[in-house]
Amino acid sequence: MVLLSCTLILATQLSMGTAVQRGQERKRSLSIHTFGTMFSSVPNIKDNEELERIDYDENVKDVFLGESLNKEVLSKASDFEADYSPGNVAFECNEINCDDENLVRKAPVMDITGGDDKIPGLNKMKRDGLDNTASVDISDVDPVVTTRLGRVRGLTLDKAYVFSGIPYADPPLGVKRWASPSPVSSWTYIYDATFPRPACMQVCAGESFESCPTKVSEDCLYLNVFLPLSVNLSSPIVTSLPVMVWIHGGDFIAGSASKPLYDGRFISNYSNTVVVNIEYRLGKVDVLFSTLLQKYILMHIVKYGPFLGAFGFLVTGKDPESSAVGNYGILDQQAALLWVQENIAAFGGDPNKVTLFGESAGAQSVCLHLMIQSSESLFRHAAVQSLPFSIPLKTRLDAMKLGWDFAKLTNCSVFDLACLRSLSAHDVLNAQVKSGKIINPFRFLEAFETWGPFIDGELIQEQPITAFQNGHWQSYKPVILGTTSEEGVIFVFGIFNKSVSMLEIVLYTAAIFKQHTFKILHKYIPFYRNLDKRVMFSQIVTDYMFLCPTRWSARSGVSIGGSVWMYVFDHPPSDDSIWKNLTFCFNHTCHGAEIPFLFDSAPSTNLTLTPQETLLANQMACFWGAFAHEGDPNSRGEQTPFCREQRLPVWPKYTFTEGWSILNLTLQSHPQHGNRDQFCDFWDKLDIY
């Protein structure tokens, strides 16, 4: 009992930074507390400003949950244990090859969508160099389109015309690094859009190395366009098609628009739409989870280092003339959407009928554009897939603290933007690695999105869930919202590689949810009596992070007149190769499971689908396509012969009068009432999203 008491006291001390303090106000400005809080001068800060720095060490002291909660945890933990009991990942940078052009990359655990970054059919176009100005001699059957910037030549492939690697902004190099994207210069030659360009800078770490892009570069602001072969590019466009713009996920630190998983040929062809996949500057290099620190307590504690936001999200100050001001990745997305407005008509697309869709970090991006005033005119519909609404965006102070630490390691002043821009990509990456700190181990929920956009007060003014609740979003736009049924599995099992006991789960839950711990455990434990409590914890993460706040946001939107359709993707893929080495996702519907079905991209990813799964994939492509056409997934007015053959079930609109019905996307998709309503009602009443 003494050992248990010491363990829980230490655990609760470590958890001070995770106090759930969002409640009714929902300000989402999480205060950061340290193991041993240290105050020191930020390097080269003007006016001798002194702000709190995070500096964790092994001397854990003077931090506690509060006397009453400590006593409650101590008194109840043993009761829970009695009543209910029935690979390390590290960042690596090869010093020989870790230069601007040859980066050693290993995939983060959460990057589940593997494969080379070349779309099948484009391998013949691989080149030793990446001369974007080269004009190539390709067969006359390949399409040439005249944009406002100049002519581009693409490829005629099975199912679609494909234009890869079209620039939508000037390369963010030199003085354009850590600056808003600038318009791309025009050209007079025929631009070679027959092969993808490098993905944006990223260094991956984890078990799915093969999922990393084969080439990365700071010169990465490109997009890919897919359009049906039925579009006649040799004559003036008579009937324009709706446009679907995909924003890829990857925690704002990884991913690429050119992954085979996102091959837009099939959804474009089947639904008669123009599909655009965009690249955007990414954030930090991330060591998601490393060694388990048994020296702190006699059980697993999670550690992850937030290697500072760099190319897409570095923040060192407020003045863009002297500092990096962040949110560049979101501004890149805006620039890509502006390119669509100005150029997509040349590809047969309708700039007045643009649908944004994205998953995970891509879904958060879509949600932000629904909130950002300057994005309002750039799209018409939105599909938000697997957005962790409960993960708060960083505050300006949090973002700047990381930026200051980064600047110190580069020997640049935080206000010397010229010095920061003079760094090589190699120097930037090395500084990111060295700047990682051990933060509160129990804030691992934030590891889902440890860096990315922050609330700057101008572009982004509040948390997404708060915006939905208060009606501060473009609620007149039709929206699809949804999740997979087991979002939490990939995160929980990715962190805890061994079975978790009841004692441990009490510890972790107390660290995250503080005074709500025992309410939560009393709610879930009767339904999850597995000896391995990771199963229960995965469902808690699914409900708290994804499903229930999505339901909350959907109902908030409906209450102010919004048109919303909700879904849950509830089919574990039969081909486990989708998960690579993430064996804990075998036979589960993990985060991202819906993507190969939505894009119907099995032929490009070497996945094998059963006939029933093929039907599900076809139906999803047609649902999203119908939504792009008319803002209603049930629309049949522009349905293709292919989609008519799929016999789509009715997808009820998410309303009270319809009983809050959602669509269960599975082998026999069907409307569903009451998807985990008792648990979501519980979380709604707890009021801690």
Automatic annotation (TrEMBL):
Coiled coil: none annotated. The active site is at 360 (acyl-ester intermediate), 487 (charge relay system), 591 (charge relay system). Keywords: Hydrolase, Signal. InterPro entries: AB_hydrolase_fold, CarbesteraseB, Carboxylesterase_B_AS, Carboxylesterase_B_CS, Cholinesterase. It comes from the Eukaryota. One of its GO terms (molecular function) is cholinesterase activity. It is an enzyme of class 3 (hydrolase). Residues 142-283, 308-683 form the Carboxylesterase type B domain. Residues 1-19 form the signal peptide. Its EC number is 3.1.1.-. Belongs to the type-B carboxylesterase/lipase family. This is Carboxylic ester hydrolase. The lineage of its organism: Eukaryota, Metazoa, Chordata, Craniata, Vertebrata.
